[in-house]
Amino acid sequence: MPTSDGQLTPADRTVLTHVLDQIIPPDGDFPGAGGLGLAERVERSSQRSARLRSALLSVLDALSLDISSRAEGGYAALEAERQISALTTVESSLPEQFAGFIELVYETYYTDDRVYKRIGWAGRPPQPEGFDLDPWDPAILENTRKRAPFWRQPA
Amino acid sequence: MTEASTPEHVPAPQTEIQGQTLVAAEGQSVPDVADVLIVGAGASGAAVAWRLAQAGFSVVCLEQGRWINPSLYPTNERNWEILGRHDWNWDPNRRRNPEDYPVNDSESAITPLMFAAVGGSTIHWTAHAPRFHPSDFRVKSLDDVADDWPFTYDDLEPYYDLNDLMMGCSGINGDPAVPPRSPRPMPPLPLGEDGKRMAGAFDRLGWHWWPSDNYVNSTPYLGRDACNYCGPVGFGCTRKAKSSTDVTYWPEAIRLGAVVKTHARVSEITVGSDGRATGANYLDREGTVHHQAARSVVVAGNGVGTPRTLLMSKSDAHPDGLLNSSGLVGKNLMFHPYSITTGLIPDLSETWKGPMGNILMCQEFYETDLARDFVRGYAFQFNRGSGPVNTSLGGAHEPVKWGAGHHEDFAERFGHVVTMAGIGEDLPELHNTVTLDDKLTDSNGLPAPKVTYTLSENSRRLMSHSVRSATRALEEAGATRIMANPLLRSGGWHLMGTARMGEDPERSVVNQWCQAHDADNIFVVDGSVFVTAGAVNPTPTLQAIALRAADYIAHEREDLKG
After folding, report:
1. A67 Cβ contact list (under 8 Å, min separation 6)
2. What is the per-residue pLDDT for A155?
3. CA distance B102 to B98
4. DSSP secondary structure string for all residues of A105-118
5. Looking at this predicted complex, what is its ipTM?
């Protein structure tokens, strides 16, 4: 459970790693978000805005209060199905915060170089290289050009 | 007073004076009393500044934002998607820069979007440049709704042409959905494989489509580069291939003698005992109040910012806010409601290549058709896919699912997204308003605007129709999965109607020349003056209106020259 001044404890970071693997699970031999070691970046990225920070803390706080977690020694000790169930409960009870948490996780995962390589994204800035497109060809307008004007002319 | 260096991105020397930055041509002094004081350096303020400086008026513009170096735009950064979602977000409530004012949108179905800088919202627009149709100016006569405008399409046409030349328009003539127009300065932007796919679908359905008029250079133009199709045109253009007024009108206006004061937030337009403008009070970046005296004031702060400024400017002569004897300042707020329908087309790939939006449009459903259950109509704009972050977060739709199935859902979307954005004509309603919030303030303690807006039943039907039509077109194009959002909440790019024009002072705020009924030396030239909204992006229209108003001042108001 995050401290009263909003800092993550070592236990929170362990929970976060497990949560990340449930949000974005492994894909074949490619690790999930937790297995990629993204917990630290998620925590750091949450400093980007008060909204995202609040979302992270709210989700971790809610998970620490989950009845199953408390009974069985914490979220990390739960079986996978019950970890998912706990997350689903948080999603239902705190929809806005959970959406912010998903935003934070996806922003972190989909800016990781290993993920870029996996999905075939160059990962370079859009500029200055840009992209090539086939040049404009006016022949494509042949069909529309046959149509009579149909805009209304006011009297 | 210190002379600052002149960065390459600013077309004139900058001088720092007590928390203000002046941008003016070499040797150009700031007049103690300006002939024309412009509030806001965005799309329309820039056009007026250029035209009036050209006509020999002394022009001073107050802009609350800064002059941004294009090299700072996110598209030069690897994490451009993150920067675009946060520091460069279209929503000032998300961006929270010191120069932004917050907007209370808790009672609005649509979130207003804007940008504070020299160039205004043209910094982050996608530069779609369609014109209103002739019917848009005659909705009362044709469809018995709202009001006719006090001028016609033909009255505005020469100013559309002039603006197309100044901003630089890519496009092609011959569109049967609109009147013939002057030759476009540049050919259309290429369609890309995804655009050609949609064009083919429209052809098979027998629906109209045409390459969009676009203020993005398809060839080098007036010293600015051609577009290299990088994609996220909405986050500023480092090549200056997209026209924003900081790279089009303003350099010319400054060369002709106009002066811009940046970091200058107007708190009040001041008036004399006769109720006519005497200038404006403004705060610099340290919060010190200054006064700029002027013989006339042109308000160009957008459809939310302008009514805010007018309502903040109460005086004995204008006890309900400046220019508000009709009670219509801040009333009749119109957005363009957007529906977003996205198709996933498996045999298209890398649909992030090319300008993000608006390279073609379909106006099959633009004009009123009595067989439908709504009046007026809508247009379709074509939009592309994006990078991995924005793809995963869904854009206008649900994010990619978390947990089992995440990777399959992402793979189905990434690079295969094609979107039809339905832009609908909103009609003016008195209960849709901009008022001053009684609690929320900006960083200087000035009241923030509160936006109150509900979507009308007519607009709701229109949006539903657009989703059905878009679904049909996307299926025809080969989409195997369709996602639909009938109203994009975060889509309030177009802010209109809150200081409407007309000839009756009891039913309008300004006349057809954008001159206030209540004070003959105050003009409003932004989207606030729109009588109705049309169903296309409003910027070319509001810039044309601003140029027309400037011509009126230049020819009929020589008395404003000192």
Report:
1. none
2. 80
3. 10
4. HHHHHTT-HHHHHH
5. 0.96
Distance between CA atoms of residues B527 and B522, nearest Å: 16
Residue A44 lies in a domain: yes
Burial A80-104 (b: 16+ CB within 10 A, else e): eeebbebbebbbeebeebbebbbbb
pLDDT for residue A4:
67
For chain B, the structural domain boundaries read 2-384+416-560
The answer to whether residue B492 scores a pLDDT higher than 50 is yes
Helix, strand, coil shares of chain B as percentages rounded to 5?
25, 20, 50
CA distance B485 to B342: 9
Residue pair B310/B322 in contact by the 8 Å Cβ criterion: yes
Q: Give me the number of domains chain A comprises.
A: 1
**pLDDT tens per residue across span A99-113:** 999 999 999 999 999
Whether the bond between A26 and the residue before it is cis, its omega within 30 degrees of 0, is no
CA B114, distance to chain mean position in Å, is 8
CATH superfamily of this structure's domain B2-384+416-560: FAD/NAD(P)-binding domain (3.50.50.60)
| Separation between Cα atoms, residue B327 and residue B418, nearest integer Å | 44
In a domain, A116, yes or no: yes
Query: Measured between CB atoms, does A35 come within 8 Å of chain B?
Result: no
Choose among A121, A128, A25: nearest CA to B404: A25
Amino acid at B296: S
The reply to whether B405 touches chain A by the CB within 8 Å rule is no
Contact B541, B549 (CB under 8 A): no
Show the domain range for A106: 10-124
- In this model, does residue B528 exceed pLDDT 70? yes
pLDDT tens digits for range B244-285: 999 999 999 999 999 999 999 999 999 999 999 999 999 999
Going by their DSSP bridges, the two strands B277-283 and B289-294 should be labelled as: antiparallel
- pLDDT of B8 reads 65
Nearest residue, CB atoms, A144 vs list B189, B209, B230: B209
Cβ distance A102 to B399 less than 8 Å, yes or no, reads: yes
Q: Is B219 on the interface with A (CB under 8 A)?
A: no
Indicate whether A155 belongs to any domain: no
Does residue A131 lie in a domain region? no
| Distance from chain centroid for Cα A64 | 21
CB pairs under 8 A between A and B: 161
pLDDT at B180 over 80: yes
Interatomic CA distance for residues B171 and B178, integer angstroms: 13
Q: Scan residues 116-155 of B and list those with Cβ closer than 8 Å to A.
A: 133-135, 137-138, 141-142, 152
Q: How far apart are CA B168 and CA B181, in angstroms?
A: 15
**Which chain A residues in 102-131 lie under 8 Å from chain B, judged by CB atoms?**
102-103, 105-107, 109-111, 115-116, 119, 121, 123-131
pLDDT grade for B7, boundaries at 50, 70 and 90: low
